[in-house]
Specification:
Layout: E1 15-17, E2 23-28, E3 40-45, E4 55-60, H1 70-83, E5 89-93, H2 98-110, H3 115-125, H4 134-142
Parallel strand pairs: 2-5, 3-4, 3-5
Antiparallel strand pairs: 1-2
Helix pairs in contact: 1-2, 2-3, 2-4, 3-4
């Protein structure tokens, strides 16, 4: 893996710096993947992504909905969290706000942010419109790592 040992530059667009200092890039797949490329990507889509040139994980998740496999999401997020200190990891959906914001908020919970504060944390440090639906907010508030 090319980027091992090289986490994201915190100044890059979409990079969320968690309280522990771990860095994760969130983005929408409609946006081109800016260089450098990630080492691992978690993609939150109805179908597996095609044509990705790096290691991926996929969780089935429809737009404006919730993941069909919450345990699978939790495992994938834990892997991203564990790899983030030494690698470039990203989370993405089509638009980069609802599903991606929800997953980033759950990642913040894994990192120690209280579930009731995780959505506000992601909105302040990633995108102000992240986590789009009441169901997504409730999912984060119930999330346990």
């Amino acid at each position: 893996m090319t980027g091992v040992g090289t986490p994201w530059d915190p100044e890059l667009t979409g990079v969320l710096v968690l309280p522990s200092g771990r860095r994760v890039r969130g983005r929408g797949l409609r946006e081109p993947a800016a260089a450098p490329r990630p080492d691992l990507g978690l993609y939150l889509l109805p179908r597996p992504p095609a044509g990705i040139g790096w290691e991926t994980r996929w969780v089935r998740w429809r737009d404006f909905g919730l993941p069909t496999d919450p345990a699978g999401l939790s495992a994938a997020l834990r892997e991203l969290w564990e790899r983030a200190p030494a690698e470039r990891v990203e989370v993405a959906c089509r638009g980069g706000s609802g599903r991606t914001g929800t997953a980033l908020a759950c990642l913040a919970v894994i990192d120690g942010v209280p579930p009731g504060e995780a959505v506000a944390f992601v909105r302040e440090h990633y995108r102000r419109r992240a986590v789009e639906t009441p169901g997504q907010r409730a999912f984060v508030e119930r999330f346990t790592p």
